[in-house]
Input
Amino acid sequence: MPGADGLRFEAVHVSLGAFTLSADLTVDRGARVAVIGPSGSGKSTLLALVSGFLLPDRGRVIWRGEDLGRLAPGRRPVSIVFQDQNLLPHLTAFQNVALGLRPDLRLDRNQTDEVQGALARVGLKGFGDRLPANMSGGQQSRVALARVLLRRRPILLLDEPFAALGPALKDEMLDLLTEIAGETGATVLMVSHDPDDARRFAPQTIVVDQGVAAPPVATEGLLADPPPGLRAYLGIT
Ligand SMILES: Nc1ncnc2c1ncn2[C@@H]1O[C@H](COP(=O)(O)OP(=O)(O)OP(=O)(O)O)[C@@H](O)[C@H]1O
Output
C-alpha cells in the first residue's frame, strides 16, 4: 500500500473560520521535506495537523499505518522546533535539553550522560550551565537541536527554526540539522520562507497555496521552474 510506511494525509480537510486547507499526500519515511508558500497559506496549519494541536474536520493523518487522530499531542511520535527554539529562559542549557527526556528533570546517571553527550554532539560541551539569555542565537539553536537528538522522535516538525540567524550561521544549522535527521532517521517537515533553505536542506518540497497542500515534489526542479502561484511568492516575474 503506498504511503503505509510514511506520513500520510488522507483526504484531510480543515477549516479555521473562513480559511480552509486540504491535503492528500504522502511523505516518505525518513524524507526531508520543505514546506513553502505565501504568508497565511496554511504552512503552520499543516504542521499543527501532525502535532495534534489541530484536528482535521475530515480525513485522517496517518503515521506508518496508525491514525494519529487517536493520540493526544503529547503522545504523538513528534518533536517540534519553533523559531524561538522553545527554550525556557529560567533553565540552563543542560536543563532545557533534559526536558526532552524528563519533564520533571529527575535524571538518572545514564540520562545525565545522554544529555551531556547530546550537548557535546552539537558543539556545546562546557555550555551546560548557561542560561539561554547568555548564549548566542546559534548556540540557542544548538540547544534546541540537542533536545531533538535526545528525544529521537520519528517525526520532526520545524517552523522557520533559524529565521532569526544570519545566512552563514543558518547554513551551518541546516547542515547540523541534516546530520541529526540522518542520525535519528527522522522524517522532517520544515516550514521556511527562504527557498535557499529548501535547496540546502530538503530534497523534496510541499507547496501550500490557495487552500491546498500539494504532494511533495523534487525541490531542485520546483525552484528551477516554479509554478505560477509560487513565482510571485519567490519574487520571480
Ligand atoms: N484560529 C483561527 N481562526 C481563524 N483563522 C485562523 C486561525 N488560525 C489561523 N487562521 C488563518 O489560517 C490561515 C493559515 O494560517 P497559517 O499560520 O497556517 O499560515 P502560514 O502559511 O503558516 O503563514 P505564515 O507564513 O505567515 O506564518 C491564515 O489565513 C490565518 O489567518
Summary: The longest helix spans residues 167-184.
